Amino acid sequence: MNAWFPRSDCTSSCVDTPAPPAGRTLRARRWTELSAALAGAAAGVPGAAPRALAALGVELRVLPPAVPWRLAGEGPAPLVVANHVSWLDDVALLAAFPALRPVAKVDVAAWPVVGAAARRSGAVFLDRGSLRRLPGTVAEVADLLRAGTPVLVHPEGTTSCGSRPGRFRPAFFQAAVDAGAPVCPVALRYRTPAGPTAVAGYLGGDSLRRSLARVIATQGLVLELHQLAPLHPGSDRRDLAALAEYAVAAAAGGREPTRTPHRPFPTVPVLPADLVAP
Length: 278
What we know:
By secondary structure, the protein is α/β, with parallel strands linked by helices. It contains eight helices and eight strands. The protein has one domain: 3-Layer(aba) Sandwich (Glycerol-3-phosphate (1)-acyltransferase).
């Protein structure tokens, strides 16, 4: 265990909001369609992430639908930061924004669904067990941003039930500071017709199959992806992390964030363009 190994207090007991159940026939069909989506991903067929979402019965809502993330004029690509609830987060984010390069823990590469999508997207894999390698990974992300490649990071470093973001750790915000790249916060919220839900959470004690089974057994699961105003990187990664955490916590509709930034950064000027591949 080390300082880069944050732990979530969330467990399967967080799944306390009844979610509408899918019938046996629908669940069987979803498993079959998911298997087909995984086979397509393994064969290199494009569009693995959207097909996986459809197979799982998850509706993705991007709010607002037009993404104002591209900077006016030339400059580095944005660092996109989002709260982390589930393995499903990155499947959805890559379905919506296929240009993103995610940062993922190294063992994710071997996972079904997420692993295939991450490898195809050119993910930056992080060995969380080695603090000595962290500066090199942060420098790699900064180089990608300078080269015009947008990168996705979950600064909590672990998943939670989604009731509020955990503390945003500042390490990867240094990449935005070094590259002079804007930071684009994204708030993820899961809900069903019964209300907000933790059913998609990848929680303490879960296996990936158990978490998959919960999602497949849920009817009407919606993931809302709330895009927030881009932030100027400034020069202080800790304040930048605090501001992004504050923005995401407010948009996620949960409790108060764990901290308040010392000072606000101005948002950067943007054009009405987006990261969605044409």
